[in-house]
Amino acid sequence: MTERPAQRTPNRQLAALIAEAGFSNAGLARRVDQLGLEHGLDLRYDKTSVTRWLRGQQPRGTTPALIAEVFTRRLGRRLTAQDLGLDACAPVYAGLEFAATPEEAIDIVSGLWRKDSGSHAELRKIAFTAAGLVVPSRDWLIGRPDEKVARGESGAHPAQPARPVPATPARVPVQPRPGKPLPPGLPPVPRQRGSQAERSLGQRVTGGDIAALRSVGELFRALDDAYGGGHARQALVRYLEHECEPMLRGTYGEQTGRRLFAAAADLTRLAGWTSYDIAAHGLAQRYFVQALRLAQAAGDRAYGSYVLVTMSRQAVYLGHGREAVQLARVAQQGIGTSAPPVVQALLQAAEARGHGVLGEVRACTASLVRAERALEGARPGDEVPHWARFFDEAQLADEFGHCHRDLQQFRAAAQHAERSLQLRAPSYARSRLFCRIVLATARLGLGELDQACQLAAEAAGAAAEMRSVRAMEYVRDFERRLEPYKDAAPVRGYRDRVAALG
Q1: What digits encode the pLDDT tens for the residues 167-198?
Q2: pTM of the model as a whole
Q3: Which of 169, 348, 356, 471 is the most buried (most CB within 10 A)?
Q4: What is the rounded distance in angstroms from the CA atom of residue 61 to the CA atom of residue 448?
Q5: Compositional bias (Pro residues) at which positions (predicted)?
């Protein structure tokens, strides 16, 4: 790893903390390397590297933040790179931290938004780390609720100085792709009251501001469902940076503050979801962790469980079945039995998907049965959180289809996938695509090659109209399964149809 030229001033701050922590130079280097591995980094520092840091050389990249985290864990108090006499860097890895306070949560997540807005290509290369799931989910489960989130009002914590923000007003250039109008009934992106500079200096946040955040969330959610996460992800991140951050750094009372943190959590989870859809998995993981922390500041335990389910979904997709099951169970434990039946069904289905990836037939079946019974217990008029309303009979049938596919129970997979496609609204275009590939895979497993190829060709056509890496990966997974039949006429016809899509 390349280092900056040595400075002449020895780093006495770092030396003092090494002594306090009881580290040897080799021991510190080893811990930094180990922490780097947790975040997908191959650093290979040694005792000579630490000697150079003590003499004044500055490590580059994310290393200063990693060193600070090593001391934070050892000494039990939050330390920054500056506390160690090191240059601050953009600690993109730090998005995996579960902040100790709401103020720290704002700092971490807003830093992530700004970095993503300015250099998303770099962030998209960050690796997903299964080890990074443990601490946030544990801290959410056992952590104490935040007593106060209010800022700048009577009896509240004083507002902190806002970080500098660009003077250019935010633009959210969300336009439908040619030939595809926006889904009906969606509101335009609301314009916020007052200038960004005014809000960043502590303008009072109103109910209208929060309603605007909610409306924007519905808009971007519909775009994601219909066109894929890559369609407007950057616009969402810019909106968070230019509109949501100044609100979080504004002034508000307790009730308004809780609602504000809830809206910010929802938008941040969505930023993670759209990042996940374009295969920026390390970045998505960081957004999910921060959404979990914002949900805690909101005092919304149920939404926190939904964020954990989202993290579980990503773990399933990446093949980390054991972690997926654990996340779903933490969500269940954290919310208890008081959640509405629809939410209980959602949590059980998430666990089932993890068991399916692991090939655990009995556990998967048991979770699916619990999910089905919970959904059957839902009644018209039940109060269901807005984020759980998508989980209906079509979604449950989709979950069954995926699980049976993973367990190679192809006849059951086909039955449930067909039912989901019959029930699923056209606006959920990407979900319908996934389910069509599940059905195609099931037909292939049953020896029905013609039908399988026909279904997959339709899905491939839909994927070509989206900006979704996941959609393309579903299609590629099916194509890998076709390899044993590559010389069959239906397969040649399928490849010709896909090639014509360009």
Answers
A1: 333 334 444 444 444 444 444 444 444 444 34
A2: 0.78
A3: 356
A4: 53
A5: 175-190
